[in-house]
């Protein structure tokens, strides 16, 4: 299993919002960053993509599948701090809907805020 911590930026809190950027860090420290506009400097641990939604989808799937090829029990599990927005945008980017996600991608997202609330005994 591989855990990916991620965040998205988008145009607003509405039904038809537009994805602006996505950043992902794996539990091994590998990073993926994509923007649908401006360019950024890259390093040897960060995959940076600047392009259309289709470009970003293609590059992100390739980046995720690199780990999948090494482990038959591989599962991509995503963690976010606002999963009810971020995961919807991630699923839309990768497949359009959760039913079309590749089998190695877990269609549910773990919300880190729930862990923090539990650890600090804070009610919702």
- Gyration radius, to the nearest Å? 15 Å
DSSP strand count: 6
Mean pLDDT: 86
**Oligomerization:** single chain
In N-to-C order, the SSE pattern is EEEEHEHEH
Shape: globular
- Characterize the biggest β-sheet: 6 strands, mixed
| Share of helical residues | 25-40%
By secondary-structure content and strand pairing, the structural class works out as alpha/beta
CA distance, first residue to last residue:
29 Å
Order of strands, widest sheet: 4-3-2-1-5-6
Instruction: Identify low-pLDDT runs.
Output: none
> Helical segment tally?
3
Strand content: 25-35%
Key structural traits:
globular; 29% helix; 6 strands; 3 helices; 124 residues; six-stranded mixed beta sheet; alpha/beta; 31% strand
How are the elements arranged and paired?
Blueprint (H helix, E strand, L loop, with lengths): L1 E9 L8 E8 L4 E5 L10 E5 L2 H16 L7 E5 L2 H12 L10 E7 H8 L5
Parallel strand pairs: 1-5, 3-4, 5-6
Antiparallel strand pairs: 1-2, 2-3
